[in-house]
Amino acid sequence: MTHSTPHTNGTFAPTRSASVLVAEDDAAIRGLLTEALEAAGFRVWPVRDGFAALNEVRRAAPDVVVLDLGLPLLDGQEFLDAWRTVEPSRNVPILVLSASPELPPLLASVGVQGHITKPFDIDVVVAAVARLAAGERA
């Protein structure tokens, strides 16, 4: 777990380089998230589908996961189910990005600690990731 230090402009910067897995199939959104999170001081591992996300969390053990629910191959729910089956003791905070304003109730039971509706303000996403990396709620 990492802690964050507030900047004078109200944003947060990790005190160590926290790692973030960004699982998003839309290349433009994935690129925007990667660029903004790296600019905020995070190490970012971007992936475009649920299988790649599952492989990456097993390999890299990220501090935070930013997850699109509409991923190809394994959707967000299937990714979470598979990950929790393989590594049930891992308690990594998950921020869901979704076009739906409603978060499926089951997701809270598998570690989802934040939900942001698309389209989103990138500063809101970066601040939520910083809070999660610091051990707070999104």
Entry keywords:
5 helices; two-stranded antiparallel ribbon; Rossmann fold; 5-stranded parallel beta sheet; 138 residues; disordered N terminus; 37% helix
Please write out the topology:
Elements: E1 4-6, E2 12-14, E3 19-23, H1 27-39, E4 43-47, H2 50-60, E5 64-68, H3 76-86, E6 94-98, H4 105-108, E7 112-117, H5 122-133
Parallel strand pairs: 3-4, 3-5, 5-6, 6-7
Antiparallel strand pairs: 1-2
Count of helical stretches: 5
- For CATH, the homologous superfamily is named as Response regulator
Instruction: Indicate the proportion of strand residues.
Output: 15-25%
Portion of residues within helices: 25-40%
Query: Which CATH class applies here?
Result: Alpha Beta
Gap between N and C termini, in Å?
15 Å
CATH topology, by name, is Rossmann fold
Q: Major sheet: order of its strands?
A: 4-3-5-6-7
CATH architectural arrangement: 3-Layer(aba) Sandwich
In sequence order, what are the helices and strands, one letter per element? EEEHEHEHEHEH
Number of DSSP E strands: 7
Low-confidence stretches: 1-11
Structural domain tally:
1
Largest β sheet strand count, sense and barrel closure: 5 strands, parallel
Mean pLDDT: 85
Q: Estimate the global geometry from the Cα principal axes.
A: globular
Radius of gyration, taken over Cα atoms and rounded to an integer in Å: 14 Å
Structural class: alpha/beta
